[in-house]
């Protein structure tokens, strides 16, 4: 598989002929072999609602993949869709050839074709996988990936994976596809206009594929320490998350261990993950709730229930007070190697809405794919500084690497609107061509991406 990548147009055949060979992926026997078939199928987000969408293994979210840190995972993607597709392993620093980005790391997998992704699952963490073709992520092609640590830095009894998503029945489209002032996204009235943004016509917010009318339940026993693995798998939503009656001890940011921080809530953008350990010391029935900070849909809700409850109680509605996690609160347990001191290379990038008629989002005025790659050399300490000249948040995601932001180690970071600034640092230790992009899927599809390319 690694061999095929160098045949791709644009891959490894730079004008200056100086691309760096990516590290090969593992060969040999896998510890876990899975097959994921992408196909049409029906989902039922509430008892009285059903819609046909695109799914892995007929499930939404797709099947939970769970492996031990260091295990070799082999996933065969079978494409039963009527369209090309790929799978990207969001957050996992895989070898370049299995990163799943069409035209950058592989040719997209044609209808009726298949492709096998094999890689060593490390480091441990809470991740997810999703299609990286067009707007397919907002059609349901996503699922959680848990890599369990052999030696966790916090104690807990068991865990639940909690996947938040925005619910879009039907086919996602970019506003520009609708024509100026048309329906669809453009008609939503969610702060459109030149500089602002429009929000897709979401019909609700989901926890593990369920609307609040039909919430999933997490059962606990008094005295348990329960680890929640929260994933923001949405395409265009910043969620504010809380559990009524309980503190969240945030233990991992984007899968990486942090010194535990106790908060009442946290906010996260598309592509971010937080793990929190909750002590079940307050018997009752409680909401696990996620509000859209940039939308007006009713909050996504699950119910946390203690099993020794006598009789059914109505869960308590959260108040919006209390402490909220800030990035400054996050302190990685082990610092990221090789990013101390002065960087070898710095990129200063502006994030903004494209000028003109069409719906575009740009990095330094360029809309991908008509955008220059950002070139780096192996082993450099690279710094990216971003300034957001638009009024909306951009959750920026780097493929193939973790980065340091403040004292945290992450792979996705929100750059706040209205001249918000973020600086991230990483070590160039995974040669290849890697996408760096906004994880708002509509911004990505409208150009807010660059390829980071290793050259000698
Ligand atoms: Cu979740 Cu480019 O990725
Ligand atoms: Cu964005």
TrEMBL record:
Tell whether Membrane is among the UniProt keywords.
no
Q: Which Pfam families match?
A: Cu-oxidase, Cu-oxidase_2, Cu-oxidase_3
Using the record's annotation, list all stretches that form the Plastocyanin-like domain: 41-150, 197-307, 348-453
CDD domains reported in the protein's UniProt record: CuRO_1_CumA_like, CuRO_3_CopA
Q: Does the keyword Oxidoreductase apply?
A: yes
Which UniProt keyword terms apply here? Copper, Metal-binding, Oxidoreductase
Q: Name the InterPro entries on file.
A: Cu-oxidase-like_N (IPR011707), Cu-oxidase_2nd (IPR001117), Cu-oxidase_C (IPR011706), Cu-oxidase_fam (IPR045087), Cu_oxidase_CS (IPR033138), Cu_oxidase_Cu_BS (IPR002355), Cupredoxin (IPR008972), CuRO_3_CopA (IPR034279)
Membrane-crossing residues? none
Identify the stretch(es) annotated as Disordered. Answer: 1-32
| Gene3D superfamilies registered for this protein in UniProt | Cupredoxins - blue copper proteins
Where is the secretion signal located?
Answer: none
State one molecular function term (GO). Answer: metal ion binding
Concerning PANTHER family, the annotation shows: FI03373P-RELATED (PTHR11709:SF394), MULTI-COPPER OXIDASE (PTHR11709)
Name of the protein this chain belongs to: Multicopper oxidase family protein
Organism lineage string: Archaea, Methanobacteriati, Methanobacteriota, Stenosarchaea group, Halobacteria
């Amino acid at each position: 598989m690694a061999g095929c990548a160098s045949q791709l147009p644009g891959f490894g055949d730079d004008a200056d002929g100086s691309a760096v060979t990516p590290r090969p992926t593992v060969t040999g026997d896998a510890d876990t072999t899975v097959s994921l078939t992408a196909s049409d199928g029906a989902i039922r987000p509430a008892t009285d609602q059903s819609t046909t969408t695109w799914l892995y293994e007929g499930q939404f979210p797709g099947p939970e993949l769970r492996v031990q840190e260091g295990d070799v995972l082999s996933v065969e993607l079978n494409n039963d869709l009527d369209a090309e597709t790929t799978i990207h392993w969001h957050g996992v620093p895989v070898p370049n050839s299995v990163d799943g980005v069409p035209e950058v790391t592989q040719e997209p997998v044609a209808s009726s074709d298949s492709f096998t992704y094999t890689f060593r699952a490390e480091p441990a963490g809470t991740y997810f996988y999703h299609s990286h073709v067009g707007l397919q992520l907002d059609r349901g092609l996503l699922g959680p990936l848990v890599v369990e640590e052999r030696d966790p830095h916090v104690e807990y009894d068991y865990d639940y994976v909690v996947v938040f998503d925005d619910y879009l029945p039907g086919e996602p489209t970019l506003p520009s596809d609708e024509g100026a002032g048309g329906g669809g996204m453009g008609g939503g009235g969610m702060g459109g206009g030149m500089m602002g943004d429009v929000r897709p016509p979401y019909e609700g917010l989901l926890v593990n594929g369920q609307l609040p009318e039909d919430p999933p339940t997490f059962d606990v026993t008094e005295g348990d320490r329960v680890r929640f693995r929260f994933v923001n798998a949405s395409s265009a939503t910043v969620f504010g998350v809380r559990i009524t009656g309980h503190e969240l001890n945030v233990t991992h940011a984007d899968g990486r261990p942090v010194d535990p921080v106790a908060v009442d809530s946290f906010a996260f953008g598309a592509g971010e993950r937080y793990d929190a350990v909750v002590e079940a010391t307050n018997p009752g029935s409680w909401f696990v709730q996620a509000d859209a900070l940039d939308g007006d849909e009713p909050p996504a809700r699950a119910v946390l229930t203690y099993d020794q409850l006598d009789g059914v109680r109505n869960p308590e509605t959260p108040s919006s007070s209390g402490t909220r996690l800030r990035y400054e609160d996050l302190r990685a347990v082990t610092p990221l190697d090789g990013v101390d001191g002065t960087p070898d290379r710095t990129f200063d990038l502006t994030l903004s809405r494209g000028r003109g008629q069409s719906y575009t989002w740009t990095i330094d005025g360029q809309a991908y794919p008509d955008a220059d790659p950002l070139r780096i050399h192996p082993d450099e300490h690279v710094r990216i500084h971003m300034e957001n000249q638009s009024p909306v948040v951009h959750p920026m995601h780097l493929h193939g690497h973790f980065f340091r932001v403040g004292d945290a180690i992450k792979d996705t970071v929100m750059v706040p609107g209205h001249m918000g600034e973020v600086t991230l640092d990483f070590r160039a230790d995974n040669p290849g061509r890697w996408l760096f992009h906004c994880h708002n899927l509509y911004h990505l599809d409208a150009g807010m991406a660059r390829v980071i390319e290793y050259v000698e």
